[in-house]
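Long-time lurker, first post. I've been practising inverse folding by hand and with some scripts of my own, and I keep getting stuck on stretches where the C-alpha cells seem ambiguous. Below is the full C-alpha cell string for one chain I'm working on. Before anyone asks, I'm not after the true native sequence, just a reasonable design that respects the backbone. If someone could post their per-position residues I'd love to compare against what I wrote down in my notebook.
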C-alpha cells in the first residue's frame, strides 16, 4: 500500500509539473556557435541548469528538458536538480556556491527567479543577465554570462547585494557552478613550484570532493595553478573526445571544487577561495566576483586551447591584436653589477643582435640602502646615483641612440625592511603587530587594501613615465606571496584582506591602463606565479618561468599553451643548461614570444651569426607564430621527442617545430602528422634556423607536398640525436 501511495503521489506531482511548465516555465538559453548552456525555472520558482553540451539544432527540443533530476533512491528526494547558484541552508546536501549569514543570524538562503535579459555586445558576443532574489530577505543575486560565439567561450560572474538593516556576512561567493551528467570524469590539474611550473597530472574523479586552491594572497599560482581540464568518459585527449577547459580571472586566492554526488553527477564550483575570507557586506554595496571562463570541445583539448587563444587575443589580453617586441635583457648577463657604460654596451649588443628593445632588470634603484642585492632597496624607486649618476633619462637616450627601445624592471607592490619606504611608512606594510616577522625572499608585501598605498604604487609607474615619456616597457615583478597576514588599514576587518588586496591591485592597474593605454608590460612573479587572465587584462605578456633550461621549457610551454596564445608567453634564450647548443635554446624560445638574456660578447662568431639570423626569421614569421592557430602534435609527456606547429589563419604559412629531447638508441621514430593546413593546397617544406655553413640533413627539404599528404602521412622530422632541434617553414605555393 505504501508503494502504491508513493507511486500515486509521484504521478500527481508529474502531472502538476507538466501543467505548470506549459503555462509558467522560463527558459534561458546561452549559446555559442558550438555549445548550449540552458536553464529552466521550476514550479518552486527557482532556476536550474538542464543542459550543457553541443548546440541544439532545433529550438523546440528545449521544451523536453525537465528542471529536476532524481538525486537518490528515496522518492521524497526526487525533485532536486542543478540549481543555477546553489545556496546553503536549504534541501541540497552538497557544496554550495553561496553561503550568507543574514543580519538576524539566519544562515539559509533560497533564491527564486525574478527576470532575465539578453543583449548583443559586438555581433559576436552576447551577455545574459539573470536576476534572482531571496524569498524571505531583501537579498539579490545577479548572474552574468558572456557567450563568445566564434571562440566558443563562456564567461560568468556574480553580483551580490542586499537591503537588510545591518551588514550581512558572505561565507561563500563563487563565480559559477556548472553541472555534468556523464558516466565518468577525468581531471587534469596543473601544479609545480618555482622553476617547474605547470606540471600536468590526470586522475579520475570519484565520489566526494576534489579541491584545487591557493592561499598566496598576492598571486594565484605557485604550487597550484588556476586552470583545469575535464575529460568526459576518458582522460582529456589532444585531438578527440569531449573536454572542458576552465580558469578563473583572479590574481589571488582561488578555489575549484569538483564534487561527484551520490548518483554520479558532477558539479564544478569556481571562484575566490573563501579561506579566512568571510566578507562583511553593507547594504546597497554590490559584491562582484571575478569571471570564471570556460570552453568545451568534442575534438579534444587541442581545439579547446585554440578557443582560449582566439578569445584571449580578441577580448582579454591587453593589446591582444598588437605586435610584440623582441628584447635583450641584462639580468643573466650582468646581474646587479653594472653601470652606465656597461648598460650602453649591452644596448649596442641589442641593436647588433637585431632585437627591438633593451630591458634593464633589477638593481637600478635606491640610494640610502642601495639595491646591490635582494636584501635592500625595494620601495625606493629613485635611480641609484653610484651606478646611474645621470638617472633613467640618460639610459632612455642611450637606447634611442643605439637604435632600440628601452624597458625597465619594477616590483612596486613589495618592500624590503631595509628601505626608506619601510622606515617612513611601516603602516603601509602587511605585517603582524605582535609576532616575529617572517620574510619571504627578504621582503614584505605592501597593503594594497589601503588607498594611500595604491596611490604610491601607481606613482612608481607614473613618475617614471612622466620623467621618461619614451620609456616603452615595464617588467612588473611580484616575488612574494602574502605572509604575516595582518592589514594595518583594515583593522577589525582582517578577513577582507585577501579580497580587498587584489581589488586594490586592480584599482592601480586600471589607473595605469587608463592613463597609458598602449604601455606594454610583462607580468612576472618569481617565475610564472602570475599567469591569470584577471591580470592579463592589463599586461601584454607574462614570464612563464625563471627556469630557462630549454628541456624544462618544453614541458612548461606545453602546459601554458593549453590556455594561452604564444604571444602571451615570454621565452628567453639564456645560458641555463650550457650542455645544450645555442641553436636548441633559440629554437625552443622561438615557439613563443622570444627574447634574449645572455651575454653576446661571450658567444662564438658562429653562434652570434645564428642568433642574428634567427631573429630575422622570427620577425618574418610573426604572423604565424604570434597570430596563427597553434597545434600540439607530439607530447613530451608521452615521447622522447616533442613537436608543435603554428599556422596562419589563411593557411598560407606554417612553422613546424621538432625537438629531440633524449631519444633512446635505435628507438623507432615515426612521422609527425601536421594539422591545420588546407588539404587542397600545395606546400613547400624548408628547414630554417641552420647554423652558419651547415646544410639541412632533412631528406625532404625543399620538396612540395599537398596539405592532405602532410596531415595524413606526415614528415619524419625526429632524429636520434640528443637535445636536437629543427624548425621548418611551410609555405603554400
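-- Answer (accepted) --
I ran through it position by position. Result:
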Amino acid at each position: 500500500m505504501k508503494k502504491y501511495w508513493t507511486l500515486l503521489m509521484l504521478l500527481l506531482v508529474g502531472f502538476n509539473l507538466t501543467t505548470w511548465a506549459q503555462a509558467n516555465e522560463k527558459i534561458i538559453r546561452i549559446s555559442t556557435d558550438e555549445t548550449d548552456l540552458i536553464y529552466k525555472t521550476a514550479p518552486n520558482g527557482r532556476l536550474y541548469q538542464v543542459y550543457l553540451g553541443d548546440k541544439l539544432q532545433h529550438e523546440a527540443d528545449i521544451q523536453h528538458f525537465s528542471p529536476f533530476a532524481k538525486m537518490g533512491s528515496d522518492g521524497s528526494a526526487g525533485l532536486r536538480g542543478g540549481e543555477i547558484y546553489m545556496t546553503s541552508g536549504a534541501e541540497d546536501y552538497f557544496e554550495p556556491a553561496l553561503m550568507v549569514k543574514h543580519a538576524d543570524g539566519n544562515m539559509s538562503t533560497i533564491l527564486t527567479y525574478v527576470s532575465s535579459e539578453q543583449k548583443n555586445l559586438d555581433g559576436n558576443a552576447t551577455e545574459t543577465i539573470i536576476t534572482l532574489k531571496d524569498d524571505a530577505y531583501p537579498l539579490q543575486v545577479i548572474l552574468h554570462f558572456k557567450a563568445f560565439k566564434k571562440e566558443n567561450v563562456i564567461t560568468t560572474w556574480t553580483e551580490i547585494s542586499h537591503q537588510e538593516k545591518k551588514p550581512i556576512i558572505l561565507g561563500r561567493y563563487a563565480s559559477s557552478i556548472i553541472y555534468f551528467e556523464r558516466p565518468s570524469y577525468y581531471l587534469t590539474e596543473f601544479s609545480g613550484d618555482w622553476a617547474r611550473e605547470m606540471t600536468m597530472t590526470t586522475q579520475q574523479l570519484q565520489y566526494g570532493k576534489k579541491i584545487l586552491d591557493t592561499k598566496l594572497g598576492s598571486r594565484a599560482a605557485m604550487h597550484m595553478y588556476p586552470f583545469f581540464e575535464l575529460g568526459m568518459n576518458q582522460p582529456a585527449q589532444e585531438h578527440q573526445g569531449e573536454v572542458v577547459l576552465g580558469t578563473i580571472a583572479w590574481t589571488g586566492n582561488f578555489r575549484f571544487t569538483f564534487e561527484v554526488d551520490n548518483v554520479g553527477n558532477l558539479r564544478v564550483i569556481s571562484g575566490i577561495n573563501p579561506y579566512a575570507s568571510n566578507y562583511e557586506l553593507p547594504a546597497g554595496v554590490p559584491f562582484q566576483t571575478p569571471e570564471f571562463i570556460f570552453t568545451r570541445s568534442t575534438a579534444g583539448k587541442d581545439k579547446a586551447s585554440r578557443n582560449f587563444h582566439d578569445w584571449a587575443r580578441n577580448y582579454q589580453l591587453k593589446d591582444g591584436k598588437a605586435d610584440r617586441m623582441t628584447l635583450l635583457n641584462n639580468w643573466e648577463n650582468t646581474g646587479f653589477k653594472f653601470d652606465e657604460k656597461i648598460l650602453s654596451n649591452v644596448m649596442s649588443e641589442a641593436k647588433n643582435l637585431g632585437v627591438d628593445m633593451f630591458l634593464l632588470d633589477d638593481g637600478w634603484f635606491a640610494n640610502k640602502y642601495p639595491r646591490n642585492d635582494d636584501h635592500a632597496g625595494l620601495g625606493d624607486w629613485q635611480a641609484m646615483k653610484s651606478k646611474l649618476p645621470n638617472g633613467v633619462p640618460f639610459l632612455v637616450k642611450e637606447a634611442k641612440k643605439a637604435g632600440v627601445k628601452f624597458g625597465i624592471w619594477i616590483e612596486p607592490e613589495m618592500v624590503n625592511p631595509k628601505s626608506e619606504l619601510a622606515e617612513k611608512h611601516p603602516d603601509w606594510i602587511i605585517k603582524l603587530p605582535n609576532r616575529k616577522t617572517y620574510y619571504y625572499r627578504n621582503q614584505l608585501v605592501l597593503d594594497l587594501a589601503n588607498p594611500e598605498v595604491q596611490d604610491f604604487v601607481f606613482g612608481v609607474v607614473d613618475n617614471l613615465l612622466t620623467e621618461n615619456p619614451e620609456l616603452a616597457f615595464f617588467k612588473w615583478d611580484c616575488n612574494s606571496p602574502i605572509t604575516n597576514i595582518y592589514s594595518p588599514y583594515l583593522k577589525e576587518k582582517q578577513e577582507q584582506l585577501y579580497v580587498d588586496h587584489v581589488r586594490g591591485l586592480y584599482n592601480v592597474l586600471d589607473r595605469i591602463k587608463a592613463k597609458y593605454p598602449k604601455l606594454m608590460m610583462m607580468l612576472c612573479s618569481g617565475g610564472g606565479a602570475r599567469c591569470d587572465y584577471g591580470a592579463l587584462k592589463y599586461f601584454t605578456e607574462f614570464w612563464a618561468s625563471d627556469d630557462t633550461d630549454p628541456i624544462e621549457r618544453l614541458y612548461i610551454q606545453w602546459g601554458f599553451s593549453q590556455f594561452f596564445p604564444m604571444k602571451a608567453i615570454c621565452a628567453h634564450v639564456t645560458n641555463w643548461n650550457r650542455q645544450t647548443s645555442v641553436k636548441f635554446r633559440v629554437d625552443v624560445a622561438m615557439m613563443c614570444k622570444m627574447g634574449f638574456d645572455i651575454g653576446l660578447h661571450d658567444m662564438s662568431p658562429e653562434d652570434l651569426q645564428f642568433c642574428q639570423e634567427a631573429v630575422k626569421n622570427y620577425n618574418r614569421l610573426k604572423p604565424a607564430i604570434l597570430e596563427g592557430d597553434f597545434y600540439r602534435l607530439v607530447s613530451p609527456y608521452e615521447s622522447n621527442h616533442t613537436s608543435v606547429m603554428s599556422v596562419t589563419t589563411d593557411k598560407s604559412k606554417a612553422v613546424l617545430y621538432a625537438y629531440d629531447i633524449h631519444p633512446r638508441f635505435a628507438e623507432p621514430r615515426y612521422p609527425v602528422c601536421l594539422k591545420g593546413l588546407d588539404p587542397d593546397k600545395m606546400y613547400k617544406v624548408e628547414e630554417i634556423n641552420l647554423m652558419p655553413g651547415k646544410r639541412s640533413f632533412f631528406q625532404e627539404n625543399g620538396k612540395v607536398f599537398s596539405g592532405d599528404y602532410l596531415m595524413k602521412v606526415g614528415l619524419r622530422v625526429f632524429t636520434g640525436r640528443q637535445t636536437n632541434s629543427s624548425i621548418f617553414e611551410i609555405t603554400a605555393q
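A couple of notes from the structure itself: The CA atoms of residues 71 and 78 lie 6 Å apart. DSSP finds 13 helices and 37 strands in the chain. Happy to go over any region you disagree with.
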